[in-house]
């Protein structure tokens, strides 16, 4: 054991000349916030739970506050306030590792610490638990120091601490996202002490994920199932702000999000999580707007309380019994709201929540105060809770900036390995290569660990007919013959499949600039090693400069002739191989991928309809398919079902009693029949599409009802007449109808249909539609069925009532107007399951996806486009949970972003919800849709 002989002394340099362009109040708050941790520090390097404003300190060591204390030393060192920070960090790490004589931290057999420890011995204090989150915050602070100081002695001690803790043991159930809060001394979790995602335990999940190189470890599986995307986490809305929570019925204190921001690199750099962090700040302020007239007073955090048990409470939205303002929470949101510092200044100037530190009456801080109990003053400041004051102010650009945290909490980057065995991000690079069916030339920028052709092609064996290399050697699955042997990532391969499919290759991603490709005189089959498109001219420049290149061809036979200055290929595409003819030998050196300028579009080789085992629909207006050739070409390539966006609603059709204009709908049906589409009628009855003459009809209620019956029967009968042949059977081109749209809304409650036809008007409409056409599928259609359980229950109750009374209904349309982060997939799945229990057809009937609800971008970014791609894949994945015989199809509500109804609905021209951009280019969201369709039933 090492003896800790020196007692380190803090030296604070209070030179305001250190700061430039700063506010003196914030300067004072910043330095005095560090002084809080300075005064909580013990001679053995550990940190007390709290500092009293008067009287003798009695609080024990807090393991989590010791982690925060370590980060405070990084801040103080960076600001130049102390000159012995590395020695102080080493002092702390020696003690937590058990190298200080007389001090043995109380830990489980697999490394987890007690929440509170005796200041002298390290034994249990306050009957505290072995805590996973407190241990996690300690190790986060240690890893932060390792990144910041880059000091060998510190690194060795941090590695020792990291390797002594088994964070996998903290995972209670990777399938449900459960994490143990507390552990037994033998290292097993306590079964009645478990938390669900989402909470500050995301830090524990992050550490567990990165503590194992096994992709099937509990930590990696839990992360993949829950935290990798916010779509699987509970979301609760407050005043239009979507908030992450651990349940759908309550809100979390703001410190939850702040701890994750400062200590979990994924949270602080992932766009989804950063958006929710911003929402949490806005919701916090929104709650306080109903409580106080002073806009600068807010902050829902944890710490000393007036009336709560043990005088400690974690305040949250709708759960702040003493209306306590937490200035440290205001500071903690500075990274996404720098103007929060002005609220701190106002609190200071109004002499609210100001407390004097015991060492010097000139040193004051801001801490919690109550709006309900104005005379209440706590007698201490709790370090773990107060940490966000120090961290938030440090994030100001005039001090260290927010990158100080995202840089130094990047514990597991490959450039800065965190331990000797370098656990890191374990998501193995995979490339999904889209095969169109028939002949194709493919290549990959990923080298599989096992390069044997039979192994690499295993996932598409059912579709694969032949694979050929540059020399004509073949792999034939049907004959079990492998004349190729191992695949070479530098080579393009000809492949023939029975049908469209996706070949996934996982392994090591090749950096294109590091692997030159040798070219022989004559024909070559070459790989394209980049993961972004690049112009042929740029890639082939070395060969054309030497006049070696004769011709380059893609799988469709399109060619690039440099001598003729003709480029029929355009950009070379990831996943595609190319045939090249050269005069002489030479080399190709691909330029490095441009990470800063990733493409928002791609060129697909598979159509959506060719991959899907169910219809893929698009909403259309007749004017587009009649007048726009590009529109029609895009439509016929990818889709095989059409929904009338406008022309088959009541308003444009029903011109008066026995007066109908079916021309718009007829144009859609005619186009569909000519091009092999089915048509879905939308919608017979909708309160927002009533002709004025009918809405103002002054006849009797019975006469009104007769008009509706006549209209429904006439319309359904008319469109049932146009027939087509499918699978040798004559059927109507119009395969289904939304009979009633959005009946369970306030607008529908007050609309003329319910007022004049009675509560059973929906049932009457379905009955009349069936009488008009016994074969057409009849649907009820509505929005928010993806997450609104109340509305889902209304629909399922309606279905039960229909069936009990012999009313026909075949299916339910879920409009699926969603956001890139809401609703969570788990919520959507639960709602979907309730509908599936009713044995109905399921139609995702109007899918689109907003990406800019916060209006924080003015053009689509690659990061946002990538989120949208992943989200479309998730939604299509989800549709496969519907039994095959219940899948009516997925319909996208609009072709191009610029034509979406959402731009006007949200009054936001910078919204990008669809699969095509304004120039009919396929966005990478389309690629996500394709990959979601790659399923096995």
Given helix and strand content, the structural type is alpha+beta
Which geometry do the CA atoms define?
globular
Task: Work out the helicity level.
Answer: 25-40%
Number of H/I helices: 32
Order of strands in the sheet with most strands: 36-37-40-43-44-45-47-48
Largest sheet: 8 strands, parallel, barrel
Strand proportion: 15-25%
Distance between the termini: 61 Å
Indicate the radius of gyration in whole angstroms. 32 Å
Task: Summarize the entry for a quick read.
By secondary structure, this protein is of the alpha+beta class.
Layout of SSEs?
Layout: H1 24-40, E1 50-52, E2 61-62, H2 63-79, H3 85-96, E3 116-117, E4 130-131, H4 132-149, H5 152-163, E5 171-173, E6 178-180, E7 182-183, E8 194-195, H6 202-209, H7 218-227, E9 235-238, E10 241-244, H8 254-263, H9 265-269, H10 271-288, E11 302-304, E12 312-314, E13 324-325, H11 327-332, H12 340-349, E14 354-356, E15 364-366, E16 369-370, E17 380-382, H13 383-394, H14 403-408, E18 430-435, E19 438-442, E20 446-448, H15 453-456, E21 464-468, E22 474-476, E23 481-482, E24 493-497, E25 501-509, E26 517-519, E27 522-526, E28 534-535, H16 536-539, H17 541-545, E29 549-553, E30 559-561, E31 566-567, E32 571-572, E33 578-582, E34 586-588, E35 601-602, H18 608-611, E36 616-620, H19 622-627, H20 629-638, E37 641-644, H21 650-653, E38 654-656, E39 659-660, H22 663-675, E40 678-686, H23 692-695, H24 701-720, E41 723-726, E42 729-732, E43 734-741, H25 746-749, H26 752-757, H27 761-772, E44 777-782, H28 789-804, E45 811-814, E46 817-819, H29 825-836, E47 841-850, H30 862-879, E48 887-892, H31 902-905, E49 922-923, ...
Parallel strand pairs: 36-37, 36-48, 37-40, 40-43, 43-44, 44-45, 45-47, 46-47, 47-48
Antiparallel strand pairs: 1-17, 2-3, 4-7, 5-6, 6-8, 9-10, 11-12, 13-16, 14-15, 18-25, 19-24, 20-25, 21-22, 21-24, 22-23, 26-34, 27-33, 28-32, 29-30, 29-33, 30-31, 35-49, 38-39, 41-42
């Amino acid at each position: 054991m090492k003896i800790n002989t020196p007692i380190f002394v803090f030296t604070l340099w209070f030179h305001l000349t250190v700061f430039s362009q700063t506010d003196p109040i914030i300067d004072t708050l910043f330095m005095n916030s560090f002084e809080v941790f300075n005064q909580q520090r013990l001679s053995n390097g550990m940190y007390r739970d709290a500092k009293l404003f008067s009287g003798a300190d009695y609080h024990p060591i807090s393991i989590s506050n010791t982690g925060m204390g370590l980060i405070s030393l990084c801040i103080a060192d960076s600001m130049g306030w102390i000159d012995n920070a590395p020695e102080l960090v080493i002092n702390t790490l020696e003690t937590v590792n058990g190298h200080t004589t007389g001090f043995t931290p109380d830990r489980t057999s697999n490394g987890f610490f007690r929440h509170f420890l005796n200041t002298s011995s390290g034994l249990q204090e306050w009957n505290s638990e072995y805590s996973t989150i407190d241990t996690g915050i300690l190790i986060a602070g240690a890893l932060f120091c390792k990144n910041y100081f880059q000091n060998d002695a510190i690194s060795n001690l941090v590695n020792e601490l990291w390797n002594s803790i088994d964070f996998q043991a903290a995972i209670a159930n990777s399938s449900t996202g459960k994490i143990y809060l507390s552990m037994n001394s033998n290292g097993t979790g306590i079964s009645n002490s478990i938390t669900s995602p989402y909470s500050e335990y995301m830090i524990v999940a992050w550490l567990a994920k990165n503590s194992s190189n096994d992709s099937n470890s509990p930590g990696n599986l839990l992360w993949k199932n829950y935290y990798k995307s916010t779509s699987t986490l509970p979301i609760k809305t407050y005043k239009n702000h979507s908030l992450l929570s651990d349940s759908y019925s309550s809100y979390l204190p703001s410190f939850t999000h702040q701890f994750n921001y400062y200590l979990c690199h994924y949270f602080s750099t992932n766009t989804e999580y950063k958006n929710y962090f911003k929402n949490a700040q806005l919701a916090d302020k929104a709650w306080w707007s109903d409580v106080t007239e002073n806009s600068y007073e807010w902050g829902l955090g944890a710490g000393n309380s007036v009336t709560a048990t043990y005088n400690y409470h974690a305040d949250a939205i709708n759960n702040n019994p003493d209306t306590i303002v937490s200035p440290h929470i205001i500071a903690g949101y500075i990274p996404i709201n720098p103007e929060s510092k002005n609220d701190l200044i106002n609190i200071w100037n109004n002499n609210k929540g100001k407390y004097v530190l015991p060492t010097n009456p000139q040193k004051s801080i801001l801490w919690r105060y109550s709006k309900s109990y104005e005379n209440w003053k706590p007698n201490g400041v709790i370090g773990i809770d107060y940490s966000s004051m120090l961290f938030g102010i440090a994030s100001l650009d005039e001090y260290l900036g927010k990158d100080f945290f995202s840089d130094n909490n990047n514990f597991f980057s490959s450039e800065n390995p965190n331990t000797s065995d370098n656990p890191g991000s374990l998501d193995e690079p995979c490339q999904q290569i889209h095969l169109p069916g028939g002949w194709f030339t493919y290549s990959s920028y990923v080298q599989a660990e096992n390069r044997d052709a039979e192994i690499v092609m295993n996932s598409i064996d059912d579709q694969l007919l032949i694979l050929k290399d540059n020399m004509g050697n073949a792999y034939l699955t049907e004959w079990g013959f492998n004349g190729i042997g191992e695949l070479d990532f530098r080579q393009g391969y000809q492949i023939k499949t029975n049908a469209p499919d996706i070949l996934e290759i996982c392994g090591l991603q090749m950096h294109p600039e590091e692997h030159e490709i040798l070219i022989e005189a004559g024909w070559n089959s070459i790989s394209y090693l980049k993961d972004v498109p690049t112009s042929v001219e740029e890639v082939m420049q070395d060969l054309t400069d030497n006049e070696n290149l004769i011709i380059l061809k893609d799988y469709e036979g399109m060619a690039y002739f440099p001598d003729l200055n003709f480029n029929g290929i355009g950009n070379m595409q990831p996943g595609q191989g190319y045939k090249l003819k050269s005069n002489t030998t030479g080399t190709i050196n691909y330029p490095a991928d441009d990470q800063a300028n990733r493409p928002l579009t791609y060129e697909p080789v598979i159509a959506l309809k060719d991959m899907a085992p169910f219809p893929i629909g698009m909403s259309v207006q007749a004017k587009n398919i009649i007048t726009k050739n590009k529109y029609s070409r895009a439509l016929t390539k990818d889709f095989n079902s059409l929904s009338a966006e406008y022309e088959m609603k009541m308003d444009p059709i029903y011109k008066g009693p026995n007066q109908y204009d079916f021309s718009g709908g007829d144009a859609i049906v005619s186009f569909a029949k000519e091009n092999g589409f089915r048509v879905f009628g939308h919608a017979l009855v909708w309160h927002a599409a009533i002709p004025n003459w009918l809405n103002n009809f002054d006849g009797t209620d019975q006469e009104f009802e007769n008009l509706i019956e006549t209209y429904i029967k006439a319309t359904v009968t008319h469109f049932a007449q146009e027939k087509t042949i499918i699978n040798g059977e004559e059927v109507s081109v119009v395969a289904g109808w939304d009979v009633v749209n959005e009946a369970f809304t306030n607008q529908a409650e007050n609309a003329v249909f319910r007022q004049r036809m009675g509560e059973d008007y929906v049932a009457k409409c379905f009955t009349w539609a069936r009488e008009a056409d016994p074969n057409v599928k009849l649907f009820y259609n509505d929005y928010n069925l993806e997450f609104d359980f109340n509305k889902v229950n209304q629909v399922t109750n309606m279905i039960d009532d229909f069936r009990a009374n012999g009313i026909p209904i075949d299916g339910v349309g879920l409009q699926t107007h969603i956001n890139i982060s809401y609703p969570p997939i788990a919520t959507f799945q639960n709602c979907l399951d309730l509908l599936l229990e009713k044995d109905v057809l399921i139609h995702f009937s109007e899918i689109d996806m907003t990406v800019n609800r916060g209006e924080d971008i003015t053009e689509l970014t690659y990061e946002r486009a990538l989120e949208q791609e992943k989200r479309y894949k998730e939604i299509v994945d989800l549709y496969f949970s519907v039994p095959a015989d219940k899948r009516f199809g997925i319909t996208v509500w609009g072709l191009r972003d610029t034509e979406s109804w959402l731009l006007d609905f949200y009054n936001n021209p910078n919204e990008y919800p669809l699969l095509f951009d304004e120039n009919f280019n396929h966005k990478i969201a389309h690629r996500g849709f394709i990959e979601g369709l790659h399923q096995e039933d």
